[in-house]
Write a structure and sequence with these properties.
Chain A is α/β, with parallel strands linked by helices. Chain A has 16 helices and seven strands. Chain A is globular and about 75 Å long. Classes of the chains: A alpha/beta, B alpha/beta. Chain B: One of its GO terms (molecular function) is DNA binding.
Chain lengths: 354, 354
């Protein structure tokens, strides 16, 4: 009786462990590639040579300044600081030594005053176990440009008084939205859009690992569409491979489809309308484009690319058209009606071009 | 008795009437076991929500249709209580955070974290994740969108987000780069005709003349929901259908047409005063100011002959519509638009006389 009583949990043990392992494996397979292929250590980071080199040097000296990373999305800011933290603390310590706050957490002035200050104040010892830990903690404030100015000013003195115990790392897209006193307390690193070579290496690596068939032109168009944003490129690649399944090869058209770029013939149609000054034709074209669900801002940016290359307009005309584009873009981002704004843009451009 | 629009809504991906290749793609995506975040965009009445419901059914089976409505209370940092209706099943949640206006960030932060931190309870469920559907995502404030960014990556294991919106212009770049963009274009006129015929057949209410179907489809402005609603109204008015049956118009549209006649009849302060009264009448009947302006502009443009005037009117409409969105009090901008149109029209006529 008692033996069966003890036996049962033991039998359940390995079985449930196996089930857990299976579900873990399933979770790993479901992991988005942007997380799966995030660089784990500083050596994994293939681009941003300058920033990485400086950071490595400071790591050796065990003395890190406050950091401010800025640059466009998808250039590896968050990845770099996470890799840096992992290098410094090792996988076990990272949980207790690093506080990561981003825009999805409440980050008003009260949180800065309580949570951040308390974390910043607490002391840590030098070495724990075999891991050689530097005697400071790191607070990562991701997407710091969405913090209010008040919350940012509450940080100012905290950053100085706790600098023995804590290093701050601010990450943002627009350095201008960080108040000057904070920016001057940090070592600034600018993250450039990724170069084509690095993106290409990374994408090809992922394709090899994940067994994705893709044509070389499709990789190039991925890189072009993503404009130096590696996250976007990887995301599109994963969506494309999900859509096409394992066997089919991913072509250029699939990539364009996923990225939501407006097909070239639609843009051709709009450009042809510039030359006519016929309202009816313009309005027909515009309402068709809007009904097809193309986004006006995408149309605008693609037309803008065309504008640069077109040879039929003089420089002055191009400048005037660019001004119109600017107005319309502003209105669109304020939430104005897409159809009216496109009509406005087309009619004004056609008066300039004709 | 349900409206025809709801009654004949297709409930799985195979039954969708148009965009067959999109349906095939979505089906493959659901079958692959892995599923990305999604951003579904397209003009109104193109079938975005229908597709989202169909996707949910494809993912979770019929269980996703057993829905209930709860009222949840959220608390802002300033201790204000917000109430929000949430539609949910065992597998998904639907929210419309823009209902709570400026506090949508709180809803996004609290709700998504809560969902993300609980795993799927039902062990027999095919999918490990829950889906959160966010309606009218283009009305989310920037803060709320920023709050989504990191959440979308961090909790990808348990949570997928499907966003529905009319335009991607107002969705910030970082979110677009984390989602699979799905464009749902409006159905073409022949496609609408086909659907209308199908509905009539299912309702067993006699033959629908081709010409009437065509007129209904054209009048709907490629909006399928509107077309079916118009069909149902037409049936109430006159059944069996006649070839030359009059298509029911909204009475406010007729009223806008009167406003247009008044504007073109006389351009002076008295007339403006008169128009103001009419505009107030429209506003008092809860007709959206932007819709009034757009309809009025359309009527005016159709009425005037000169190509130049049409273009000019379109530009002015775009300008004042933008102001309307930015401003507070609708009547100012509507009246300014009318005054501007009067002045442009009068000037044009005087130049014609000379």
């Amino acid at each position: 009786m008692s033996s069966s009583f003890f036996y049962r949990p033991r039998a359940g043990g390995p079985a449930s462990a196996a089930a857990a392992a299976a579900s873990n494996a399933a979770a790993a397979a479901n992991k988005p590639w942007i997380e799966k292929y995030r660089p784990k250590t500083m050596d994994d980071i293939s681009s941003q040579e300058q920033a990485v080199a400086v950071l490595k040097k400071t790591m050796e000296s065990q003395n890190l300044p406050h950091l401010l990373f800025y640059g466009p999305p998808g250039t590896g800011k968050t990845s770099t600081i996470l890799a840096l933290a992992r290098d410094i603390y090792g996988p076990e310590m990272i949980g207790s030594r690093v506080l990561e706050l981003n825009a999805s957490d409440e980050r008003g002035i009260s949180v800065i005053r309580e949570k951040v200050k308390n974390f910043a104040r607490s002391t840590v010892s030098h070495n724990i176990g075999s891991q050689n830990c530097p005697p400071y903690k790191i607070i990562i404030l991701d997407e710091a440009d969405s913090m209010t100015a008040d919350a940012q000013s509450a940080l100012r003195r905290t950053m100085e008084t706790c600098s023995k115990l804590t290093r701050f790392c601010l990450i943002c897209n627009y350095v201008t939205r960080i108040i000057e006193p904070l920016a001057s307390r940090c070592a600034k690193f600018r993250f450039k859009p990724l170069e084509e070579k690095h993106s290409k290496d990374r994408l090809e690596l992922i394709c090899r690992e994940e067994d994705v068939k893709i044509s070389p032109e499709a990789i190039l168009s991925l890189i072009r569409i993503s404009e130096g944003d590696l996250r976007k490129a990887i995301m599109y690649l994963q969506s494309a491979s999900r859509l096409m399944g394992k066997d089919a090869e991913i072509g250029v058209d699939v990539i364009a489809d996923i990225a939501g770029t407006v097909p070239e013939d639609v843009i051709d149609g709009l450009e042809a309308c510039w030359r006519t000054r016929d309202y009816k034709k313009i309005s027909n074209e515009v309402s068709n484009v809007v009904a097809d669900g193309h986004s006006a801002s995408k149309i605008l940016s693609q037309l803008h690319m065309r504008l640069l290359r077109t040879e039929t307009l003089s420089s002055i005309q191009k400048a005037q058209v660019a001004e119109v584009f600017g107005d319309v873009d502003k209105a669109l981002s304020d939430g104005a009606d897409e159809q009216l704004q496109l009509l406005n843009m087309m009619t004004r451009v056609s008066t300039i071009a004709a | 008795m349900a409206l025809w629009v709801d009654k004949h809504r297709p409930n799985n991906l195979d039954k969708l009437d148009y965009h067959a290749d999109l349906s095939a793609h979505l089906k493959k995506l659901c079958a692959s076991g892995d599923f990305p975040h999604m951003l579904v965009f397209g003009p109104p009445g193109s079938g975005k929500k229908t597709r989202v419901v169909a996707i949910l059914r494809e993912l979770f089976g019929a269980g996703s249709e057993k829905i209930k409505i709860d009222q949840r209370i959220f608390e802002t940092p300033s201790k204000r209580k917000l109430e929000l209706n949430i539609v949910s099943s065992n597998y998904h949640l639907e929210v419309n955070p823009s209902d709570v206006g400026n506090y949508d960030r709180v809803v996004i932060q609290d709700l998504l974290k809560e969902v993300a931190q609980t795993q799927q309870v039902d062990a027999s469920a095919q999918k490990r994740f829950k889906v959160v559907v966010i309606h009218e995502a283009d009305l989310l404030t920037r803060d709320a969108q920023a709050g989504l960014r990191r959440t979308m990556e961090k909790y990808m294991g348990n949570l997928r987000i499907i966003m529905c919106c009319n335009t991607t212009s107002k969705i910030i770049g970082p979110i677009q780069s984390r989602c699979l963009l799905v464009r749902v274009g409006a159905p073409t006129v022949p496609e609408i005709c086909k659907v209308l015929q199908k509905v009539v057949k299912k309702e067993h209410c006699g033959p629908l003349p081709e010409s009437l179907a065509l007129r209904l489809a054209e009048d709907s402005g490629r909006n399928l929901r509107r077309a079916i609603l118009m069909l149902e109204t037409a049936k109430v008015q006159c059944h069996p259908f006649k070839d030359n049956q009059e298509i029911p118009r909204m009475d406010w549209e007729d009223f806008v047409r009167q406003v247009m006649h008044q504007i073109l009849k006389a351009q002076n302060p008295e007339s403006l005063q008169h128009v103001r009264g009419m505009l107030y009448e429209l506003l008092n009947h809860c007709i959206d100011a932007a819709t009034i302006l757009k309809t009025l502009a359309k009527e005016l443009i159709e009425r005037v002959e000169s190509n130049e005037l049409k273009m000019r009117f379109a530009q002015e409409a775009a300008f004042y519509e933008h102001r309307l969105r930015m401003g507070q009090k609708a009547i100012f901008h509507l009246e300014a638009f009318v005054a501007k149109i009067m002045s442009v029209y009068k000037r044009h006529q005087m130049s014609m006389d000379h």
